[in-house]
Amino acid sequence: MSSPTTNGSSSHVATTNTSDMEIPTIFGLPWVTPTFDPSVTDVVPTMHTSSYPTINPALNPLLSQAGKTVLITGATAGIGFAMAKSFVTASASKVIITGRRQARLDEAVGLLRQHAKELGKQTEVEGEVVDVLILNSVGEMATGGLCEEGGRTTVEIWAKLEANLRGPMRYTELFMKQGKDRQKYGFTKATAGLFFRYIAQRSDPEKMQVVSIHPGTIYSELWRRLGVEKSVLPFDDISLPADFVVWAATKEARFIHGRFVWANWDVEELKAKYAERFKQDAELFRFGVCGLAGSKLHVIQ
């Protein structure tokens, strides 16, 4: 089977013999590698798959988190743990991590303390008043449609809402109730995008900065449980979202306050191309519900 791909004016053809290949399955169905339209996803010329100097706290002093306390939910492994390591690298004064299982939490804390020691950092893996909140914890993916035979029940779907909406809302509520005289930078995952858009629209980014991100395609325990091998997809390196959130928690990222962005997008190109457009377009890269009124498209808020 052959499939042509184009890159600018050059053309390349890759040929693969699939007759003897074992096709992986997910939920009992054959796995089909997803395809994306680059004109939609590649909003800047450079798409990264791993960290790079601008967002790397070990290389960019502008990303220093010195004096700040960081709270990361779901940080005992995977992306959350990698984010915690990046904030330690960025000299955060305190890093607080949460997790569901005490044993894994204790192990993660030990590893982070060792990481801080190796870097010569004075980071404490504990704390009280939070400057940076990262909502990384989500409920496991529900399979099957709500109304399909064998699909999830309302009770099961509601349990996912508890993890993916109520939990982040509660953390955000407590975060916003902290001392009003402290400078705060908030960073959130796009689990409850509309809720965080609402919060962002009513927040001064000088006091609380809100950003939602797509972390990239990162291989994790969930993929393993689904039976997907790492070789099936061109997975991104976990350093990409880990360092991206450190950048997003600084004033360097203030121009994307309230927006939803991909960690893959080059941040310098993103700023050069969209910073001024964001000032003119309130809906660009924001969650919304669109409706029609007359001949014009309006966003219902």
From TrEMBL:
InterPro entries: NAD(P)-bd_dom_sf, SDR_fam. GO terms for cellular component: membrane. GO terms for molecular function: oxidoreductase activity. Transmembrane segments: none annotated. Keywords: Oxidoreductase. Belongs to the short-chain dehydrogenases/reductases (SDR) family. This is NAD(P)-binding protein.
